[in-house]
Every structure is written in structure tokens, then in C-alpha cells.
Design brief:
15 helices; six-stranded mixed β-sheet; 25 strands; elongated; about 30% helix
Length: about 550
């Protein structure tokens, strides 16, 4: 356990934050101040942290006061010193006897050193400032006088950028730098020291941090960075969020090259702007149709596919996608992976849709689509490659970051595990179903016939219920097709044979699933009993967002 000697001059909020968070298991052994009235003393005592006061007497030299500080600290065991608003420049007298000493400065050094970093940043009109955690080095001459150019010049351990907003004053900027910058950076630095990940070379003026690199990749993974700094610019304030009582905005990353609904041109400018839910659903729809090289169409509702299909023509693909569940498609989002033509546009406006997303439109198609005043028409431009590597999910207090699910299977990747071999048509349908199922919320089940969806069961807490829902959708909502003879895809393995029993009752004749259950043999046996062909992908495809 790393023990810290904290030295503060006033409230010591950074030290108290470290004490409360125990980064890397580190804890404060003592808090020392030179002001007997410093509020940090009471706050430390409330936390059971010992305190020391070493007043600066009028006739004390710098070195004499530092010797008194060292004497007061000699009663405590500690491996790190952390300064927090300790308004004394330390000299070699202290630094040569103490372990590594850290300070946090409210600016991105070497910019704005000194006492008024916030005011200096505002005066210079910078758009970004921040904070710096650095190793404290001697900033005095042989007589103990301060050498200004050496103040805050020690090797940098870590930094945190903070935006400066129009209308900021020194107080608002100071608070933002503290709570959003220093409260992140200082515990991070302490954690690295506690984990033994830091190598300080004061002579060279360098700090090497073993942890501050990407996780080690392997042949299947590139690794994830230790820190993920994301800077987006607000593109628009939205009417509201998912619900009218929630404020919302859309932010944009101008470095993104991939086709995106955030960067799309809304061609019918007189129509309503996109809502929060429109953006969310349109993004899901666009990501789905990017899966396919053939002409593809998808209808999305609440981020789930209501239908998806590929065909020889875009119009046929849309007709097949819509006929999966036209009732659920009401008020949905349409995505196309080809330039929208007039024939497809005529079908789209035949029922109520909120948004259509495509990589372009013919003039005739636009004339048709513009007949609907509030059908938002988005042109995302050329689809191109999928270049964005990560997806993120904000959590209260943090965020989950993962590599995007870009898996793509072919017939050759499928392992047939049943007595009956799938037909060539069933194998093709398995591949289509698997690529589409990736975009269905788990637990997800998808029925497909050829390269069109027949029924989709999404977001169920039971895989058997997801099968039942897909069967119900196919039998009751689909137009001109049903589950009889279809292929079923499951985004994760079947833990028991009951899902296969339900599928057989619905008329399913082939199944694609990851496999990997301890009960795989029982599931395969159930498929054999019903004459169902089954193949394993060897990888699952959960989607929980």
C-alpha cells in the first residue's frame, strides 16, 4: 500500500478527493499545512487522517521551514508527497530528503505557469486549458530565492484538457478545471505510482509511465488505450431527448470519414429537424445496411430491425423488408445502401415513415419523397469503408468502450453439426440471417427465407420467448411469407433443447447459432429428431444497447 504525505495550504480538495477514492489503494498517512486555520485540517480529522501544522515564522528562512516540515513528517511512513495549494516553493532542502513529490497545476504546462493560471488563460483567449500533474523540482537559487522560470518546470506525469467556454470568468473556469480536470488527473497519477508503473528521471527531466499505453494486442485484438479523450463539437440542440422532459443535443466528430447520419445532408430543408430518437434509429438502420454488398433495404423501429432484405434491385429489397412486419414499420426509419430511385421512393411514401437514409437519390426519387412534408430525407454520401473502431455506452460515472462488432461470416465459416446437411439455399440464408441478427437487440432470434427476414424476436429475457415472438411475427404480421421452411438464427447458444422444439413447431428447417453450450449435444439431438439442419458459427453476436 502506498502511503502519502499530503501538504496543503487551504481547503485541500484534491487531497481529500484522493483520500476518498484511494486510487490504487493509496491512502493519506498525514496532512500537513503551514496555516493553523486551514479548512483541510478539520476535513482530514473527520476522515481519521492525522494532521500537522508547521507555521511559517517571520524570521524563518526557506530551508529552516522545510527542515521543520521534514521533522514533523518524520513521525510518519510515506512513499509519496502530494501538494495541493501548498503556497510555498520547495527547495532542495526538502526535495532531497523526501520521496517523489507531486503537484497539480491548473493549466496545461508549460502554458500559464505561476499563480494565476485561470486568469492568464482567459486573458489569452485560449479555447482549451486544463491541468498538469508534475514532479516538483527545485526552483530556488543557492540563497533560497525563487527562480521564476524554474517554477512548475518539473517533468510532467499526466495532463487533462478542459474547454474554455464563452462567458467563462475566473471562478467558473477554476471550478471546471478542479472538478473535471484535477479530480481526474491527480488520482490517476497517484494510482500509477501506487502500482509501481512510473519511472522518474529527474536529471533528464523525464517521466515514463508503463501503464499509459494501449493494452497489449494479439493476433485478434489491437488493444485499448489506457485513456480515451473524446472531443466533440455540438452540432445542434435538439427539441428534447428520448422524452420531452429531457434536454438533448447532437455532437459531431469532424474527423470521422465513415458515412454517418450526424454528417448527413437533410435534403428537404423545410421538414422538421431530426429528433434524438430519429438520430438513434437512423444510425442503427445505416449500420445494418452497411453489412451488405448487394442492394439492401432495412426498416428500423426503436433501433431494432422490423425487416431487412437484399435483392437484385433496391425496390425488391425494400418490398421484402417492409413485408416482414409492415405494422411495426409504421413510423419507422428506412435505410438503403444504393441510390434511391423513384420506384423505391413510391413504396416508401405509401405508408408513414419518419426518415429515409441513403447514399444518394435520383431527381425523380426526391420529387416523390418531397411529397411527404415531414419525411426527413438524409443523404449520407458514399458509404465507403467502416472506419470507426469503437462503440461506447455512457454509464453513470464512466463509460463502456468496446471494439465495434465487425464480424462477417461466410458459408465456409459454418460448422454443420447435425445429421442433415443444410442446402445451398439454407447456407446462404444462414449467412444473411447472421449478418442481420447482429443488429437485433439481445436476446435475439431471426427467421429468414433466402435473403429476406420473415420474423424477428428481439430484446427478450428468455431465448425461448424470442423464438416464440419471431414465430408470432412471421405468422401474424408478415405479408406473403411465413416461418414454414425458414432458417432461424440465434445470437447466442441455446442452453436447452426447448428453443429448438419451439422452432420446429413454427416450421423452421435450419438453424444457425454460435454453439458452445454445455448442452450442445442435447440441442443437436433435438434438431436431429426434427430433421433440422444446424450449423455453428463459433462466435456469438450479442447486442445489448
Amino acid at each position: 500500500m502506498t502511503r502519502i504525505a499530503g501538504m496543503a495550504g487551504n481547503r485541500g480538495r484534491n487531497l481529500l478527493n484522493i483520500a476518498d477514492r484511494n486510487p490504487g489503494g493509496a491512502e493519506l498517512a498525514v496532512v500537513l499545512t503551514n496555516d493553523a486555520d486551514a479548512p483541510v485540517l478539520e476535513a482530514a480529522a473527520e476522515r481519521g487522517i492525522p494532521t500537522e501544522v508547521v507555521p511559517l515564522e517571520d524570521d524563518m528562512s526557506r530551508s529552516e521551514h522545510e527542515e521543520a516540515v521534514l521533522e514533523a513528517l518524520s513521525e510518519y511512513d510515506f512513499e509519496l508527497v502530494c501538494l495541493d495549494g501548498y503556497m510555498r516553493i520547495l527547495s532542495e532542502t526538502f526535495l532531497s530528503e523526501a520521496p517523489t513529490t507531486l503537484n497539480v497545476h491548473p493549466a496545461l504546462l508549460p502554458a500559464f505557469p505561476g499563480m494565476d493560471a485561470w486568469g492568464d488563460a482567459l486573458e489569452e483567449g485560449v479555447s482549451v486549458t486544463g491541468c498538469t500533474v508534475h514532479v516538483v523540482t527545485d526552483a530556488t537559487d543557492g540563497d533560497g530565492n525563487v527562480v521564476e522560470e524554474d517554477v512548475d518546470a518539473g517533468p510532467i506525469v499526466t495532463q487533462e484538457p478542459i474547454p474554455v467556454y464563452e462567458g467563462d470568468d475566473e471562478e467558473t473556469l477554476k471550478e471546471r478545471v478542479l472538478y473535471e480536470g484535477e479530480f481526474r488527473a491527480y488520482p490517476r497519477a497517484v494510482k500509477w505510482f501506487a502500482e509501481g508503473a512510473v519511472d522518474v528521471d529527474t536529471e533528464a527531466g523525464e517521466v515514463a509511465v508503463e501503464s499509459d499505453v494501449a493494452t497489449v494486442g494479439d493476433e485478434d485484438h489491437d488493444g485499448l488505450p489506457l485513456r480515451r479523450l473524446v472531443s466533440n463539437d455540438r452540432a445542434d440542440t435538439l427539441r428534447y431527448g428520448e422524452n420531452p422532459h429531457q434536454d438533448a443535443a447532437v455532437y459531431t466528430d469532424y474527423t470521422t470519414d465513415e458515412a454517418s447520419v450526424v454528417h448527413a445532408d437533410q435534403l428537404n430543408e423545410g421538414a422538421k429537424a431530426l429528433s434524438y430518437n430519429n438520430y438513434n434509429d437512423a444510425d442503427g438502420a445505416l449500420n445494418l445496411i452497411k453489412e451488405f454488398d448487394e442492394p439492401a433495404a432495412a426498416v428500423i423501429k426503436h433501433t431494432n430491425p422490423a425487416g431487412c432484405a437484399t435483392a437484385d434491385s433496391l425496390a425488391d429489397a425494400y418490398e421484402k423488408a417492409l413485408s416482414t412486419d409492415p405494422m411495426s414499420a409504421f413510423g419507422g426509419i428506412v435505410a438503403l445502401n444504393r441510390e434511391c430511385d423513384a420506384e423505391t421512393a413510391e413504396q416508401i411514401i405509401d405508408s408513414f415513415k419518419e426518415v429515409v437514409v441513403a447514399p444518394g437519390y435520383t431527381d425523380d426519387a426526391l420529387e416523390v419523397l418531397f411529397e411527404k412534408d415531414n419525411l426527413r430525407v438524409l443523404d449520407v454520401g458514399e458509404l465507403g469503408e467502416r472506419t470507426e473502431r469503437f462503440t461506447e455506452k455512457p454509464l453513470v460515472g464512466g463509460r463502456l468502450v468496446q471494439e465495434r462488432d465487425l464480424q462477417s461470416i461466410s458459408v465456409d465459416d459454418l460448422e454443420v453439426v447435425t445429421e442433415r446437411e443444410p442446402t445451398d439455399e439454407e447456407l446462404e440464408s444462414m449467412v444473411f440471417a447472421w449478418q442481420t441478427l447482429k443488429h437485433v437487440k439481445s436476446n435475439g432470434i431471426l427467421f429468414a427465407d433466402g435473403t429476406e427476414t420473415v420474423g424477428i424476436g428481439m430484446g427478450q429475457v428468455s431465448r425461448v420467448d424470442a423464438v416464440r415472438l419471431a414465430a408470432m411475427k412471421a405468422d401474424e404480421h408478415a405479408e406473403g411469407k411465413n416461418a414454414e421452411g425458414a432458417v432461424m438464427a440465434s445470437d447466442a447458444f441455446f442452453p436447452f433443447p426447448d428453443g429448438i422444439e419451439e422452432a420446429a413447431e413454427a416450421g423452421i428447417e435450419a438453424v444457425v447459432q454460435p454453439g458452445g453450450s454445455v448442452n450442445d449435444d442435447d440441442v443437436i439431438e433435438a434438431a436431429d429428431e426434427h430433421g433440422i439442419a444446424m450449423a455453428f458459427t463459433g462466435q456469438r453476436s450479442f447486442r445489448h444497447d
